[in-house]
Amino acid sequence: MSTRTLVRGGLVVTAAEETHADVLVEDGRIAALAAHGSAAAAAWTADRTIDATGRYVIPGGVDAHTHMEFPFGGTFASDDFESGTRAAAWGGTTTIVDFAVQAVGHTLREGLDAWHAKADGRCAVDYAFHMILSDVHDSSLKEMDLLVEEGVTSFKLFMAYPGVFYSDDGRVLRAMQRSALNGGLVMMHAENGPAIDVLVEQALARGDTDPRHHGETRHVLLEAEATHRAVQLARVAGAPLYVVHVSAREALAELVAARDQGLPVFGETCPQYLFLSADDLAEPDFEGAKYVCSTPLRPREHQAALWRGLRTDDLQVVSTDHCPFCFRGQKELGRGDFSRIPNGLPGVENRMDLLHQAVVDGHISRRRWIEIACAAPARMFGLYPKKGTVAPGSDADLVVYDPSATQTLSARTHHMNVDYSAYEGRTVTGRVETVLSRGEFVIDRRTYTGRAGHGVYTPRATCQYLG
Ligand code: URP
Ligand code: ZN
Ligand code: ZN
């Protein structure tokens, strides 16, 4: 029995165009679009009709950087796949790409199997995986090829966190060389970890133990230097490069320089770098711990460069790097020693709304909002046009978005499993009203109607920005 849903009267916004169109959904896919009032649209019948008058109809968000249950600093990110994907749905995100972790001494397969076990049967929306490479050697390099073939087509390496996830330049180069052969995309955490560790040790020895020293010791130039090095290593390897969570304007300048030379170098930033700053990290009474993440929040002056980078397409993607730790019991592990504060911020529920606020504020256009939050991440990570657009044949991952509603972001009302909001008390214009995932109602006029296990694992093609 086929199920048909009709979304009538809305403004359909994709990265490419804005059209006053009705959308017909059939069996989990978008079947057709037709102009409001057209003969074609008038002839459609459906089991359910959504009135989207005065609303946008947009593709479900694609958040290409999340860390559900991520192990860090002796604890685990507080959202699991069930709570985290439910919160994603509330925020209009219908696909996440999470990071499976290869632990040192283990194979990629073991890491990937472990992440499948965490996610299987628990997700409210669809999900895919990147792989974190923590132990680059001959056999893990060979395993990369197998993962690419089965749809895990991107690999995160860390120039930071010595002793945990860190890879030295030789290992980075070898992984890049392999990705140049197998079509994978290296995602780089670009910070000079060994140099940062020296600054951290010196700061702690001076008694500078507050959260704000997290930002100062993770120096802007050590992000820029690592970004430069990553670009050069990728050139030597003949590989494309995607730099995650870019926060410093000096690091962005390295990406701009590379792209100006025509190199296949891509960049991502996150809402926290666009809307928060080192001022938040400097909040007294250890409150700054809520804002400890890496790369760190930067002084406010960096934000203008990031917005510009998003407008000029020197940055292609905005992901959340959602990696929540509760203030009580988790962030508190670093009282008296900022280096022990688990790194990461909550945000999977807030991204679409914050970026819509950027439209309202005039930083980006409405179509660019959809591009950086839906279409570009889908293309970057081989999910387009199944995900990231509203077009016949695409999955019916749709958000009916009310652009005029206002809401105040707060831990009291959010759905992420974390005891604070990084955006507490911030009022934004725009709100998710209804969410379909493959045609099923996950949020129905602000009521959660989804279920754990609806979301399915989605293997990916390779990066679609490359020839
Ligand atoms: O602070 C962060 N970003 N935590 C998650 C791990 C990472 O580096 O992305
Ligand atoms: Zn990182
Ligand atoms: Zn991350």
TrEMBL record:
<feature type="modified residue" description="N6-carboxylysine">
    <location>
        <position position="156"/>
    </location>
</feature>
<dbReference type="GO" id="GO:0046872">
    <property type="term" value="F:metal ion binding"/>
</dbReference>
<dbReference type="GO" id="GO:0016812">
    <property type="term" value="F:hydrolase activity, acting on carbon-nitrogen (but not peptide) bonds, in cyclic amides"/>
</dbReference>
<dbReference type="GO" id="GO:0005829">
    <property type="term" value="C:cytosol"/>
</dbReference>
<keyword id="KW-0378">Hydrolase</keyword>
<keyword id="KW-0479">Metal-binding</keyword>
<dbReference type="InterPro" id="IPR011778">
    <property type="entry name" value="Hydantoinase/dihydroPyrase"/>
</dbReference>
<dbReference type="InterPro" id="IPR032466">
    <property type="entry name" value="Metal_Hydrolase"/>
</dbReference>
<protein>
    <submittedName>
        <fullName>D-hydantoinase</fullName>
    </submittedName>
</protein>
<dbReference type="InterPro" id="IPR011059">
    <property type="entry name" value="Metal-dep_hydrolase_composite"/>
</dbReference>
<dbReference type="InterPro" id="IPR050378">
    <property type="entry name" value="Metallo-dep_Hydrolases_sf"/>
</dbReference>
<dbReference type="InterPro" id="IPR006680">
    <property type="entry name" value="Amidohydro-rel"/>
</dbReference>
<comment type="similarity">
    <text>Belongs to the metallo-dependent hydrolases superfamily. Hydantoinase/dihydropyrimidinase family.</text>
</comment>
<feature type="domain" description="Amidohydrolase-related">
    <location>
        <begin position="56"/>
        <end position="442"/>
    </location>
</feature>
<dbReference type="Pfam" id="PF01979">
    <property type="entry name" value="Amidohydro_1"/>
</dbReference>
